[in-house]
Design brief:
single chain; Molybdopterin biosynthesis moea protein, domain 2; 4 domains; 6-stranded mixed β-sheet; 9 helices; elongated
Length: 421
């Protein structure tokens, strides 16, 4: 395998003219280099960011034995000795500390409060009856009942979140629980984008002959914002080689990654491929998928800024971003481990009688029928220009190359909830 292309074929077009999806992902990820710069940020502001250094616990969690219930802290041996009748010797709310438990006494205790020395169980209040300064408790209580022991969640010095983790709300809570007020993160990835096409116009203006609104700009912005990128928008680039070269050159000087929408096919007005080759190198072009075959990947300028070119059709842009740009960006952000989104296997609620030569990603959603079984429905249109199908869908149904399906066959489903988060 060659390191410059990630493929044995040694160029932007493999044998047969189309890259398989696995080959294409291999090329992209082999070229993904995580940003090196780091910064320290207050933990409360770290959602969606990527850890550059692991989070280490400064002490045990919980820091001391504490009560898991509102109830009474007791010495188990005292229950049988006093036939379940104990005097209430102290009251311990959360946020305070108790004193050693006297023989024959119980401590009124609340959830999260420290267990007083000498107590070895907590009896929940619903199982007790209060009689003035005395409480009657059941005799069948075992040592350790309803006690959360010190360090049972996290031990002192433990690595609780590894470097390379993209932080979710639960990670922030865990970091805070071990006393981490600030976290060391990789800086945000800088992504420059532009859309090619003389026909494009921004919403809010009146459409002229042959013009369409530039929806891809908004889709790209949203997808990159979900991933926490800093976006530089280079605007709409006219369909000319000089304008395309100028946009690529400008973006390569200020960004970690360039993404272009449109202009990557083979038409007379498609100049992105030639412009990339003029300024750098093209490692990948044309993938055996539908929608989104003419995906391009290369490097631009003296810094060899990575470039991803997607088709201009809005569904193709959306799909190829999810399948290729997203994992590449995550690697550049420093995310480690597997990047494949979890999939669901369910039965098809459609027929696919004619096998296709390319892997198909159908806009789809799940339907639960009367017997509780989950079925995969697909949108009636396969057109890559029907953007409304993406809002109708809740994910993508995957049809492998050369495979026919009939209703009831099993099919893989990639939920958008696993991608757009």
């Amino acid at each position: 395998m060659k390191t410059d292309t990630g493929s044995e074929y040694g160029g932007p077009t493999p044998r047969g003219g189309l890259w398989s999806m696995e080959e294409a992902l291999g090329v992209l990820l082999s070229h993904a280099r995580a940003v090196a710069e780091t910064e320290e940020i207050p933990t409360l502001s770290c959602l969606g960011r990527v850890l550059a250094e692991p989070v280490i616990s400064r002490g045990p969690v919980p820091p001391w034995d504490n009560s898991a219930m509102d109830g009474y802290a007791v010495r188990v041996a005292d229950l049988a000795r006093h036939e379940g009748w104990l005097r209430i010797g102290q009251r311990i709310p959360a946020g305070t500390g108790g004193y050693p438990l006297e023989p024959g006494a119980a401590a009124r205790i609340f959830t999260g409060a420290p267990i007083p020395p000498g107590a070895d169980a907590v009896v929940m209040q619903e199982h007790c009856s209060l009689h003035g300064e005395w409480v009657r408790l059941p005799l069948a209580v075992t040592t350790g009942t309803n006690i959360r022991c010190a360090g049972e969640d996290v031990a002192r010095g433990a690595e609780v979140i590894p470097a390379g983790t993209r932080l979710r709300p639960q990670h922030l809570g865990l970091a805070a629980s071990v006393g981490a007020g600030q976290l060391t993160l990789r800086r945000r990835l800088r992504v420059a984008i532009f859309c090619s096409g003389d026909e494009l116009i921004m919403p809010g203006h009146t459409l002229g002959p042959g013009q369409i609104y530039n929806s891809n700009r908004f889709t790209l912005h949203g997808l990159l914002q979900i991933l926490g990128c800093d976006v530089t928008d280079l605007g709409i680039v006219e369909d000319s080689i000089d304008a395309t070269v100028a946009a690529l050159d400008r973006g390569a000087k200020q960004a970690d990654l360039l993404i272009a929408s449109g202009g990557v096919s083979v038409g007379e007005e498609d100049h992105v491929k030639s412009a990339v080759e003029r300024l750098g190198s093209l490692e990948l072009w044309n993938i055996a998928i539908r929608p989104g075959k003419p995906v391009a990947f290369g490097h631009v300028g003296p810094r060899r800024t990575p470039f991803i070119g997607s088709p201009g059709n809005p569904v193709s842009l959306f799909t190829t971003f999810c399948l290729f740009a997203r994992p590449f960006i995550l690697r550049m952000q420093g995310v480690t481990g597997l990047l494949d989104p979890p999939t669901i296997t369910a039965r098809a609620d459609f027929d696919w009688p004619r096998p296709a030569s390319r892997r198909e990603f159908l806009r789809a959603r799940l339907k639960v029928v009367a017997d509780g079984e989950t079925l995969v429905q697909v949108h009636p249109s396969r057109s890559s220009g029907v953007l409304s199908s993406v809002t109708w869908a809740k994910g993508l149904a995957v049809i492998p190359e050369g495979q026919a399906l009939k209703k009831g066959d099993k099919v893989r489903f990639i939920p958008f909830s696993e991608i757009l988060a």
